Amino acid sequence: MTPPSTPRAAPAPDAASAPPLLDLTRLTRRYGSLTAVDDVGLRLPPGARHAVIGPNGAGKTTLLNLIAGTDRPDHGTIALDGTDITRTATARRSRLGIARSFQQPSVISELSVLDNVVLAGWPHHPKRRGAWRRPSRHRLHAESARGHLETVGLADLAHRPASTLSHGQRRMLDLAAALAGNPRLLLLDEPAAGLTDGDIGRLLGILGGLPDSVAIILVEHHVEVVAELATDVTVLAAGRVLVTAPTREALAHPDVRDAYHDPGTTTRSVSSERPTPEATEARG
Q1: Which of 69, 114, 124, 260 sits most deeply, having the most CB atoms within 10 A of its CB?
Q2: What are phi and psi for residue 246, nearest 5 degrees?
Q3: H helices within 85-242, ranges in order?
């Protein structure tokens, strides 16, 4: 892995006092008798670099699903730039500037690397009417798509089938597709999972180079990724917020260590166990 870079500075005082980009109020999601997200509140300023960590089954992926709109809360509200989007459809939230990546890269293997990014960006373009593969439409979107591939280091592979990519390259393609909509809020669900140390270094370089206009919520098990990228951390356990604090303070908090109660935990991974499919579906 590449040597740690200079930590990102915290937002300036005037930025910190600005209206939040994202405001979660008493957010709750239940699945039968299981409360996956329990009365969660979170306020993020524009350009935030915020991590959400916790043991397996803590509710991290469910929280991202609620923000993205792929799941709906039983209680509470979600506001983006002061507008309530709690019941807004996923596609509309995407056009408002919320993008995400997934634990498993959502790459269309049958398409080329370039076409994956063109297709991802197409719904966000003001001239999006008509079939995206029509030559005139494709040329319109391909230039910006190539720029995103350049950002993630895949420009030289633009015309290769996505099915030929390695796991690390597929993760980079998934990130390029998320960036294709020029998001204001980027939700990343375990982007370092399965990556080599070299790939993690490249991922950190890419995310660290994103402009301040893009806020990030990062769900991640790798502590060094959290420590290098995030300025603030929210720790979940059993769906509830244990701590929200600056990164070093949060990671050192005794309640956070107690929540994991795993003597085998290392600095490489907050939790080395992988969740069962049932736990992943219910909480994340």
Answers
A1: 114
A2: -55, 150
A3: 90-96, 113-121, 135-152, 167-179, 197-208, 223-229
Q: Do residues 201 and 230 touch, judged by C-beta distance below 8 A?
A: no
Residue in the structure block whose two tokens are 């990062």: 218
Q: Is 57 left (phi over 0), alpha (psi -120 to 50) or beta?
A: left
What's the predicted TM-score (pTM) here?
0.81
Q: Return the structure tokens found at 244.
A: 């929200």
Is the CA virtual torsion 125, 130, 131, 136 positive or negative? negative
What are the structural domains, with CATH classification, of the chain? 17-97+183-198+214-284 (3.40.50.300), 109-182 (no CATH)
pLDDT tens track, the chain, 284 positions: 544 444 455 554 454 556 899 999 999 999 999 999 999 999 999 999 999 999 989 999 999 999 999 999 999 999 999 999 999 999 999 999 999 988 888 889 999 999 999 988 876 555 555 555 555 566 667 888 999 999 999 999 999 999 999 999 999 999 999 999 889 999 999 999 989 999 999 999 999 999 999 999 999 989 899 999 999 999 999 999 999 999 999 999 887 877 765 443 333 344 333 333 334 444 45
| Of the candidates 117, 100, 110, 186, the residue with the CA atom closest to the CA atom of residue 152 | 117
Q: Where are the alpha helices (DSSP H) in 209-282?
A: 223-229, 247-252, 254-260, 277-282
How many Cα atoms occupy the beta-carbon half-sphere of 91 within 13 Å? Answer: 4
